[in-house]
Known about the structure:
- This protein is of the alpha+beta class and 400 residues long.
- It folds into two domains: 7-187, GAF domain (Beta-Lactamase, 2-Layer Sandwich), CATH 3.30.450; 221-395, Histidine kinase-like ATPase, C-terminal domain (Heat Shock Protein 90, 2-Layer Sandwich).
- Helix content is 48%, strand content 20%.
- The protein has ten helices and twelve strands.
- The strands form three sheets. A five-stranded antiparallel sheet has the order 2-1-5-4-3, with helices on both faces.
- The longest helix has 57 residues, at 164-220.
Amino acid sequence: MVGYGSPMSTSGWMLLCVTGTFLGFILPRRRPVLSRRPDDLPDEATFVTLHIAAMAAPSLRAGLTRDSARKAVCHLRILLGTSAVAVSDAGGVLAWDGGADCQRAHASEHARIALASGRPHVVIGDAFTCDAPGCPIRGAVVVPLVVDGRAVGALAVYDTALSAVLVRTVTEVARWVSGQLELAEFDSSRRRAMEAELRALRAQMSPHFVYNALTTIVSFVRTDPERARELLMDFADFTRYALSGARDFTTLAEELHCVDRYLLLERARFGDRLRFTVRVAPEVLSMPVPFLFLQPLVENAVKHGVGAATGPGEVRVVVEDAGSEAHISVEDDGRGMSPERARSLLGGDSRRGRGEGGIGLANVDARLRQIYGEDYGLVVESELDAGTKINLRVPKIHPW
């Protein structure tokens, strides 16, 4: 078996750890298939390093857990080319890879010292304890893993010899691992923010729509019991979807079904005053979309197109296939609004938007930007006495 730290052992161990196959690649070939110039070697070393880092990154983006540490530690040892590597948190060792089993019992204490100081810690000489006869391990380099200024764990490396180069290398790898954990924390914070936005949207929807829908259903109980029963089933279908357990995404088909139930209930409420059309390209029905992102826009159109008018009003929903995106518009022919009013609604102005759909529009706009980026917010076209049209784009590819 080739020794630790050699270029061939690094690539060989990488393939063995990642796939468990291609065993023929573990041993060095006596003669290279292709002749290579000496200046090709740094490029190959860079590729191997980046490839190993890319293999470890997805696990680390899940956060510092026992499962993620176990998946990443093998790649980290290959990256460093040392005898053993341990990843720990404040509770102790999460994962260990390599030889030097005699140091497993000491790894938690080594990590604790680094966590307490918040600085890299070298264990060598009299401070290094090993009871195994003939053990080649001579020391450890332990570096804290820092997230948002807090030491949340430690990367410990054990080898037969320590050097200033190894200390710098472990420090840089730990900094890279910390960066991946920072991204994991950011992803988690973004997800929590999205869940909070969704809860706020549900809380806004419930007292307004539920009261109006139930009042409408009650009005049909004596005059048209069959219609009341159908509306009650539509209401149950709508609320089961809208108030279901937390989820980030659904399909466009499911979201449109929710919109359809909503419009049927509002049609029962407004009668012939409400006209609506929904036109959808069938190619986009299966694409993933943010959960409950379209109904608030349709609700806003109903309020401004019919609820605020004395005569009839029309709501139009159009979903078009635009290659890598779906282009969606929700339009009403109501009284419209000034550009300043539109900006206040998207900004979530609590003094002017609350109770008039503003919180819902601002919520959807913020969620779209959080998920897809700043270029994917709502675009409002409106003029006084000329109706309102809300445009948005949704990429077909799932963002996570």
